[in-house]
Amino acid sequence: MKFGFRKPSLKRRISARTSIKRQLVHRAGIKMPRGYGFLRNPKKAVYNKVYNRTSFDIFKVLKRLFK
């Protein structure tokens, strides 16, 4: 589990938006409403909730500083 700031990865950021699986799900209209991730994959949903609360994005910190 990661604690502290998340190291940005341009490669992962691009691949997450251009994956074939994502394109198929979005074009087929099989998207679930926000907050229903625990129904699709409970283990992943719990992991993501903990991860997002224990780590932070360095870009959000910089954005807040220069606002």
Mean pLDDT: 85
- Kindly state the number of beta strands: 2
Cα shape? extended
Helix content: 55-70%
User: What percent strand?
Assistant: 5-15%
Number of helices: 5
| Physical arrangement of strands within the biggest beta sheet | 1-2
- Contiguous uncertain segments of 5+ residues: none
Distance between the termini: 30 Å
Structural class: mainly alpha
What Rg is obtained from the alpha carbons, in whole angstroms?
15 Å
SSE order: EHHHHEH
**Total domain count:** 1
Main β-sheet, in a few words?
Answer: 2 strands, parallel
Give a written overview of the molecule.
This is Phage protein. It comes from Mesobacillus subterraneus. The chain has helices spanning 10-18, 20-28, 37-40, 42-54, 58-65; strands at residues 4-6, 55-57. It has 67 residues and is mostly helical. The protein has one domain (7-65). It has a two-stranded parallel sheet with strand order 1-2. The relative contact order is 0.20.
